[in-house]
């Protein structure tokens, strides 16, 4: 499952023997570290590793190990900073792994500390010199608290590391239990370093780490918080349980080796670990449930994972099609180096063939494949045309992208996006020029040159994907009398970003309606304020817009209605945020759409089943902003619509799927509706 262009960087810490006589030793931590090392080396083709002795050696550019006496508190922290945070060789998508096998502990947090437990205790990892005296200060050396680990992970985030995995084979819950005839060893990796709360835990411990800068976030029109931390945690057990010495690492690696050649999301790994858990030990898995382990967050997910049906004679089928934005030329990955290419796309289904040079491989029915960021078709059906106001900006673009093209000065009137340098070439201004954005007052985005100059290609692709998914609708076709699918002639999809976006209402949407309402809380349930007033209004141009006032205290809800008398409909609701080009999924039901019976409705943001409320605020109270609500509706369940989502400028690596070009007309239907959200300063 290793990526050929990604290099692993890991810090592996394992301690059997502790320096303090107050701490019982363990048996299997070092051998467990060898198991994880063997797995990482074979998976990522690592040949260079460095083990640090107590005097310390220069870290290699790949894996560093700290074992036994070398795994002191200062060595763990300094090596983490030097090898993982400040390592200039690490690229944003490179996998980073921090592994710890040893004792864990819980201690009473100092007064004034924020803790996650009701009893005020914090968790910590025990270094090899835990409970010994510092040679210079003569202070007792204490554990590495969870807040310090968290702060170090935040520093990785600030460095742009978005592919971080933390594996902790230790325990942070109560009680040590050892066998009477083996009293030298602890059977469990838990609290053998029993805290002595008579000695207060230092309030300012690791203050140099805590005082590091926090990562910045992007503001704008805000809906629901969908952010995930950039790291994944795999822990040996629940905080209230004890971790068996020698069980978790072995079980985890066995599971990962069993899935070699396939991709597993974090949610799938969590479910599998629950199945094989020890009788009194439940592993904990935290992180974005849709990401794939050891892969960056944008190569992901349930968003892009589909089951494959084997048709025979080298042909396959996947339930992903035009409604997902997929068409001929899109790629799906089965295993590393084994890709399948779409050669025909229907509304909801696509047929695939193996992509050369692989022409024959045994793929089981029901295998999971993931859409990958690699457009293949040379056609630019939905290409975004970009005009650069400064020729120097073009030096950072390879001109081999499929989702956008650079236009000459003479072609500037045809451009959809303009990129110019302002403020004495210190800032980059990006304007969206489509009629929709101009007439709805969508603000330009401004970045510092240092933020985007090396990522301009990815920024433009993020914008292109944003435009594509916002504008696309079902295609109209000219269907000849022949019933042969190959005889059907699809029309070329137009640029749907004129204003209004719903100028020609999709036939299916004519059976639907949408309302945006202000809500408030009554007896713990959020309901629509009386009298109900739909904030979406038709403007003079035939579009729909809701003019809202900037207020964090005002909440809203959405009602989607199926007005048909005999057809079940499935709704997928997204929010498009032009200030950072993100696309957020607000309502997908159980994943295949929110099912609504004929003449019935669902609510989002209010009612007993509506989930969290929706709100809109401005990061800059002096500037209004615009966003867009888009609804996809279909006559059948549609899995995988999270493929539309993208996190925008926060990671600058969008999905790059080939746009759909045609469909086979049947009784199946899908349609869309778009409305504008305008948030003003007053």
TrEMBL record:
Residues 9-275 form the Peptidase C14 caspase domain. It holds the Pfam family Peptidase_C14. It comes from the Eukaryota. One of its GO terms (biological process) is proteolysis. One of its GO terms (cellular component) is cytoplasm. GO terms for molecular function: cysteine-type endopeptidase activity. InterPro entries: Metacaspase, Pept_C14_caspase. Belongs to the peptidase C14B family. This is Peptidase C14 caspase domain-containing protein. It comes from Coprinopsis marcescibilis.
